[in-house]
Write a structure and sequence with these properties.
Structural class of chain A: mainly beta
CATH topology of the largest domain in chain B: Cytochrome Bc1 Complex, Chain D, domain 2
Largest sheet of chain A: 4 strands, antiparallel
Strand content of chain A: 25-35%
Structural class of chain B: mainly alpha
Distance between the termini of chain B: 45 Å
Radius of gyration of chain A: 21 Å
Largest sheet of chain B: none
Number of strands of chain B: 0
Oligomer: heterodimer
CATH architecture of the largest domain in chain B: Orthogonal Bundle
Number of domains of chain A: 2
Chain lengths: 416, 149
């Protein structure tokens, strides 16, 4: 047995060390006609990603790299899509990054910065960005400030709630929900700011939508001129309320939901959550619920519901022409992968596609790219070799996906 | 050292990936489920307490959640000072750097657990997940609790 184990180890180490990319690309499954290229490897905690119209790729790092920088620039791509030149700048860590017009926006966990892009898509003021928004709530939990911009000069900032379910004592069994939830004044929603005005904070912006626990993935749908977000649903129904939920129910609930938002909308957190089995908004147990009582009459319904805890970290509406026509104006969602399904197997770790028709989801969704974790059965998220986190569309219509475990950047292309 | 119930097809690349993980990463260490026969031991009870109160965040293999929850595998904080460890269970923990990393999710206090259960779960954790530290007695938990109150 020992000998066999040793041979297996040697063979697999050899395979992986020699051609990690080849093994990985064989493992990641894509629909027919699609293929994947490695744009860059080992960048670190590669969170969100943005590509300029000239094809320059910017990646936001969740932790500063060895050069103490938090934004990576990729350029000079070869025939296989690999970046020939990798540089970095920006002395702040964070998740959010977006290109709009001649500007690159990037976030720390409490601020939004703006850089100017030249005609070739390069930043001209690497050391002196404009401070657009500052002093946003940042308390570690759900602190990532993710962003998107509309076509009218506004930037939308996800300010996640620093809490699971707005209990008096967070994640603590027996602790009641706070009514009303005081966190909603400065978090648990999407805030709108002027993308061209400096030094704004809460008083200068607008709470565009509330009752959203943490919407890491968000994108402006230019077809319907509307903000869409993917919410991370609350955790620990079974651990906090074993009298109402078993471990299996708690692994599937609540739904990870997609909202189409209008100004003033309320997603219902922390008072209600969505249950895709009952197809209802259910009163949270911290606020008197039992898994069956409904609530949230004033809260909006989601436009689509996914299984629980998959962790949607990016949302992207596809506008390009490279992919088949059925993909255009549909949405890609990068699922970072679950932890709160334990002791059930973990799920997620894939990129999904949501078909849209006439500006609305058709109600179906499909797995588009899977296998990032590198193993079929995942007991714990730490086992995953790679986890999808960010999405961007290149000027040619290729889809970029980031991985924040190793910092690999993938490019998915299509050829008939 | 492959875990039971796993298919092991050595031809498929993804299986090889798994083998490397299983053999190479300490976070994949099999879990000692305690004594197989005889009367329930302190680590049997410890596993029960772990499964009910700790597993959701620290995970089935003790490996935690990257960026959110620290790993318990071969961990200095687990195998080190007993009073510090007992106090984490009694008082919870948040915003503290652990081996150079910050973790986003807070640990709630678990003071509602009995001295016996806290001793059992800490003894279980200290002797599993590649940890090799000695047991914690309920009297040590009681003393720490008294010092807190």
């Amino acid at each position: 047995m020992k000998k066999i184990t040793f041979i297996l180890l040697a063979v697999s180490m050899l395979l992986l060390s020699a051609s990690d990319n080849r093994v990985l690309q064989e493992v990641i499954k894509l629909p027919a006609g699609f293929s994947m290229q490695m744009v860059a490897e080992d960048l670190g905690t590669a969170r969100h990603i943005a590509v300029t119209p000239q094809g320059i790729v910017y990646v936001k790092l969740g932790k500063l790299n060895d050069g103490n920088n938090g934004i990576v620039v990729l350029q000079n791509f070869d025939q296989k899509g690999k970046a020939g030149k990798t540089t970095s700048f920006g002395n702040f860590a964070g998740t959010g990054i977006a290109v709009k017009g001649n500007y690159l926006f990037a976030t720390s966990d409490s601020e939004v910065f703006r850089y100017t892009l030249d005609a070739n898509g390069f930043v001209t003021n690497q050391d002196k960005p404009d401070l657009i928004v500052t002093k946003l709530v940042s308390k570690r939990q759900h602190a990532s400030k993710t962003i998107t911009l509309d076509n009218s000069g506004n930037i939308y900032v996800n300010i996640g709630a620093p809490s699971n379910a707005c209990q008096e004592a967070d994640r603590t069994k027996g602790s009641k929900g706070m009514m009303p939830c005081p966190l909603l004044d400065s978090a648990g929603g999407i805030w709108q700011f002027n993308s061209a005005k400096l030094n704004q904070s809460y008083a200068d912006g607008k709470r565009y939508a509330t009752g959203l626990r943490n919407s890491v993935g968000l994108d402006w749908n230019s077809e319907t001129n509307q903000l869409y977000v993917m919410q991370h649903g609350r955790d620990m129904l079974f651990q906090l309320y074993p009298e109402y939920f078993d471990a299996k129910q708690s692994a599937e609930l609540p739904s990870e939901v997609m909202f189409a938002l209008n100004q003033g909308d309320d997603g219902g957190w922390p008072y209600v959550y969505y249950d895709h089995f009952q197809k209802k908004k259910i009163l949270a147990p911290e606020f008197g619920g039992d898994g069956k009582k409904t609530g949230g009459e004033k809260a909006v319904d989601p436009v689509l519901a996914f299984p629980g805890h998959l962790a949607p970290n990016a949302l992207l509406f596809y506008k390009g022409n490279m992919f088949p026509e059925s993909y255009r104006n549909g949405a890609f969602v990068a699922f970072h992968g679950s932890w709160n399904r334990a002791p059930e197997k973990q799920k997620g770790y894939f990129v999904a596609f949501v078909p849209f028709k006439d500006g609305k989801p058709t109600g179906k969704w499909e797995i588009f790219a899977e296998g990032f974790a590198g193993l079929e059965s995942i007991d714990a998220p730490g086992q995953a070799r790679h986890r999808p986190c960010g999405l961007a569309e290149g000027p040619d219509g290729a889809l970029y996906v980031t991985d924040d475990v190793k910092g690999h950047i993938y490019r998915i292309k299509y050829a008939k | 050292m492959l875990r039971p119930g796993r298919k092991c097809d050595i031809v498929k690349p993804r299986s090889l990936v798994f083998i490397v993980l299983a053999l190479g990463a300490s976070s994949m260490a099999p879990i000692n489920v305690g004594a197989q026969s005889g009367t329930p031991s302190i680590t049997d009870r410890g596993k029960e307490v772990y499964d009910q109160n700790c597993l959701a965040c620290h995970q089935i293999d003790g490996s935690g959640v990257p960026m959110l929850t620290p790993s318990l595998v071969n961990a200095g904080w687990v195998q080190g000072d007993k009073v510090r460890l007992i106090n984490i269970v009694l008082k919870g923990l948040k915003g503290v750097e652990i081996d150079g990393e910050m973790y986003d999710n807070p640990m709630p206090p678990l003071a509602h657990l009995s001295d016996e259960d806290i001793a059992a779960v800490l003894t279980y954790v200290r002797s599993n997940f590649n940890n090799k530290a000695g047991p914690i007695k309920k009297e040590e938990v009681a003393a720490a609790r008294k010092a807190t109150n």
